[in-house]
Fold these 2 entries.
Entry 1:
Amino acid sequence: MPVKTTPTTTAAGGVAHYVWNNLPAETLKGTLTRKLITSERMMIAHVYFKKGDDVPLHKHENEQLTYILSGALHFWFGADGKDEITVRAGEVVVIPSNVPHRALALEDTLDVDVFNPPRQDWLSGTDAYLRK
């Protein structure tokens, strides 16, 4: 089940401060783990891959930005997977709403995913494609 995150500090107007190193990691399939921070209209996640971890083909209504901090992910796009892109440290891929995609970690990787709106399947634990 998803792990609840609590701000390290809060301030006036709903301001919340988080420290990634203090957030609990949620264990998914294989060695895949993630940490989430969510606001009303956005979500940011650290997703930790070991070489060979994969994200099966899926799509979602949420727009997605994937920024690779370290390592590399190879992506396949479209229902037939004919379009391929390798995204490495310091690079970003923008995935529009409802574009089918899958990914494979080419090496140990830390990826930052940003979603709008927040992924309700990630928050509720109904993201079965990541939990098999």
Note: The longest strand covers residues 63-70.
Entry 2:
Amino acid sequence: MQTEQAQQEIRLLFTVNEAARILSLSRPFIYRLIQRGEIASLKVGGLRRIALEDLQKFVAQLRASQVEG
């Protein structure tokens, strides 16, 4: 069961390294996906961030493409 503190720590933005860990992919591969437009990313100051919503969208697109064949 999650504690109240853990429930309050929902993150909306992730670093490229964190996104790579979440998706079980390499950091360079995440950058290639960003360059190809397959994962959207944001620049916050000089920092690259990936929104949780965009990670979820990427996974949904992967699933859909594999179902379609």
Note: Residues 39 and 56 are 10 Å apart (CA to CA).
